[in-house]
Target: CRP/FNR family transcriptional regulator, anaerobic regulatory protein
Amino acid sequence: MSKLTPVVPCASCPIRHSAVCAECDSDELEMLSSIKSYRTIPAGAPLASAGESLTHFSSIVTGCATMSRTLEDGRRQTVGLLLPSDYIGRPGRARAAFDVEALSEVTLCRFERRAFEDLLRKTPHVASRLLKMTLDELDAARDWAVVLGRMTAREKVATFLISLARRQAAAGDALAGAVTMRLPLSREAIADHLGLTIETTSRQMTALRKDGLIEMTSNRDIRIPDFGALALEAGDDGDGGLIV
Amino acid sequence: MSKLTPVVPCASCPIRHSAVCAECDSDELEMLSSIKSYRTIPAGAPLASAGESLTHFSSIVTGCATMSRTLEDGRRQTVGLLLPSDYIGRPGRARAAFDVEALSEVTLCRFERRAFEDLLRKTPHVASRLLKMTLDELDAARDWAVVLGRMTAREKVATFLISLARRQAAAGDALAGAVTMRLPLSREAIADHLGLTIETTSRQMTALRKDGLIEMTSNRDIRIPDFGALALEAGDDGDGGLIV
DNA sequence: CGTGTGTTTGACTGATCTCAACGTCGGTGG
DNA sequence: CCACCGACGTTGAGATCAGTCAAACACACG
Model:
């Protein structure tokens, strides 16, 4: 299901400056290198299952995954979209709280849980970086609660497209005019993320298209001709804070 | 608006074993004591405002507060209910991301932000405790996303009552039979927490009452005659994981 | 005893869901 | 090569749950 992948030196790692290792100096990277391993998981495969044991703490190096929970009657809610540099697992806990599933082929940089916990104690730069990333995730999760609890279907879809465009852009890009992107999620995955049905999601995409706010060259390929106009639909007036 | 309150020794502090200081030894407590101050805020007053500067990192010692965001058109979503030992503010950021408002009179144990950031570097027990608390908050925020995104009004109200009862009970209590509690929130605050209107919230409370799942001696005083039965309405089958 | 705030209840509206049919695309095998 | 198939996405029609608007009620307070 997953395959071991040759280890890449941290210096040439694509998430070197954004993952838990971002603040490490070369000595600390040495330490990380000695205990890390890589693994590649095909699209659609589970990376973790709620309630089951999680032996490793992993960072996403490439690819994309969702974190979700499914109720007994089948209702599913995605609680996080994981992109490169996001982590899976947590120190001090042996079991996963949510299901994590690869949307595309995913490459992970992994640390055995106990070894990672030791690392946290020994290398303060990893601990402080993990705290910062977790605080950011917490803010993002709370921002998302506003979307789920108070936004209309149209606003939800617009907000999703805006936030995905922002995250896929190189950090710091302004994102003013036209933007093109490929959706890593199916309609069903988008619906689960937004707390909507597939049908409502599809209808809102169609509506945004008919209103000229988005263009679709294929189901997965979206062009936003005027980023600001779509952001306005998302209820984002540009003073920041709202969008994940 | 808020008043300075005499400093209490950490040894007799009600949140000594659950707040950010929980893992500290006596030397570390000494350090904390030297820079802490107390403040008491009356019910209804703001503890923080989104976008405005936050000079202190504070823990709630007694009382109850909500963290929320209000959209431009007035829609409000509560993103967290803060009870004793929960914290307000974050290291490394000078501005609040959300509004925080006292529901009852609140007593805070506060640290000036820069001093607290120094403390985090110097006392690993504070840093590790803060990381653990933040990871727990993140799990809770993600759990709440499932409630907001996928539950019906009835399930939302039942889930809220169950989770409030669990949090108010002394940690570790089983909560099997009858439970009595006083709601710290108005109907409006409950509605904002659940992503519902006041009217829908009120109707669901009435429905649960008529179904014998709750009893109300006043608007704010609730008795749950059979905790398990209400938990079932909340979609909580007892195998854990779902409820905050 | 009036006034104001918070809560409940009722009647109606409407956004989203449900159920169902149809369309599109890519892969497969005759 | 092309017909078939299945997965995914779109569209339509009707049902339903929660929202809106409005009125009544309850309680605290001056």
